[in-house]
Amino acid sequence: MSARWGRLPWLWLTLLVLVVDQASKVYFESRLSLYQQIVVIPEHFSWTLAYNTGAAFSFLADGGGWQRWLFALIALAVSVVLVVWLKRLKSTDTWLAIALALVLGGALGNLYDRVMLGHVIDFVLLHWRNQYYFPAFNVADSAISIGAVMLALDMFKSDKSAPASKSG
User: Fold this and answer.
1) 62 is catalytic
2) Structure-derived torsion over alpha carbons of residues 116, 117, 123, 126, reported in degrees to the nearest 10
3) Interatomic CA distance for residues 45 and 125, integer angstroms
4) Which of 23, 26, 27, 38 gives 20 to 30 Å between its CA and that of 112?
């Protein structure tokens, strides 16, 4: 693909994340009632249906509704930035392209929920001995997290850190 398109061909991964995210949400919402828990690995992993009107870790979930549009606007702005960034990447920036595509797919998956439903559907619950619960999450959240870790790791790549020139 020509340099004109940058790494936009990686948008197939964004589309895959979006489709898997939405399909999994439809599946679990049709099979579970709200907060119903199906234990998969006792004391560690369960399926459960939860709605999150806030952001990560239910931040601002009790905001009264305005946060829906704030988070939707932020997700939309971030999505535009990520597409532009993908377009500007060099052909050698595959790792970074994958990271951006994952974050974009997750952002769009949760954006769809937020705008169309007024909440994000979560269904994965990790816990330890039924005492310490990690907030429920979904495929979109996982893609965002994996992409963010990849972005962080990309900052440490040796070809990114060129030696600083000394002025005399």
Assistant:
1) no
2) 100
3) 6
4) 38
CA distances 153 to 79, 103, 107, 147, Å, are 21, 14, 20, 10
Instruction: Give the end-to-end CA distance of the chain in Å, rounded to a whole number.
Output: 43
Token digits for 156? 């440490």
- What gap in Å lies between CA 20 and CA 141, rounded to an integer? 12
Catalytic residue among 21, 62, 141, 159: 141
Residue ranges of domains in the chain: 3-157
Contact 95, 13 (CB under 8 A): no
Annotated catalytic residue: which of 62, 113, 122, 154? Answer: 122
Query: What are the structure tokens assigned to 45, written together?
Result: 């992993």
| Full-model pTM | 0.84
